[in-house]
Amino acid sequence: MLSTGEGVLLSIATSEAMLGVIGNGFIAVVNCTDCTRNKTISKISFILTGLAISRIFLVWLLISEAYIKIVSPHLLSSINIIELISYLWIIISQLSFWFATTLSIFYFIKIANFSHYIFLWLKRRINTVFFLLIGCLLVSWLFTFPVAVKIIRDSTMQYINASWQIGMKKNELIFHYAFINMGIFLFFMIMLIVCFLLIISLWRHNKRMQLSESGFRDLNTEVHVKAIKVLMSFIILFVLHFMGVTINIICLFIPESNPLFMFGLTTAFIYPCCHSLILILANSQLKQGSVRILQLKCSEKEKPHDSLEEK
Fold first, then answer.
1. How far apart (Å, rounded) are the C-alpha atoms in residues 130 and 203?
2. What is residue 40's three-state secondary structure?
3. pTM
4. What does the pLDDT read at residue 232?
């Protein structure tokens, strides 16, 4: 039986999960609708749609695992369920962060202004960059899956006295956990580098504007600032998400750790919930889509009122 505090945290986490599903579902629907209307799909639309769908699956995976642990933790003692959750986690989490990293790289190449030959090469060969990033994702899976299989096969897990007993040394478990998430760490490092380069690009652009004695803030500066805000928000939310997921994994081995588990769950769901909202506000296409939906809802509410007045 959950305490009042645990119930409140679970309710917050569930609400965050539902908001994350709604927000990401909206992003996917708007992009799919535009692609159907235009009969073409751009790389940005493909990345945004993939990011939204992968996050929806990530949210459902986390919330399903959480409710299983709370309601019927003995189900997790089955090696088949552990395997399924582990493999799904590797695929979905890395795919989600790959889409987010790819989106940031594409915006960086589009917005930043460097004269270095490597940057100019990347700018001219955007398709090559895209396939290189796909290669990074496949290599990450290639290295991660064998380690995950080894952990599941070699360790024996049992649910005893409201905690998990695992037949593996703690140092070895930490090492394997870090190695499994190496792909996510790699994408996170790329995100940091991209954010740093955007800040340098903004600084250089402002310096040129000062030398030209321009007294107004141009469009290029606004675009730089908006992109940096989106990237910084992603980095902060990602750190919170990873902390929450790490807390949840640690709680599997701590007796009676439901309050800490609920806190980790609530922290983990901030990322898919808030970042989808940030993307909607930062992307003009998504913002226009949200405005159209609000206008449709308002017109639907006004129609019954108008028909009553006519009568």
1. 27
2. coil
3. 0.80
4. 82
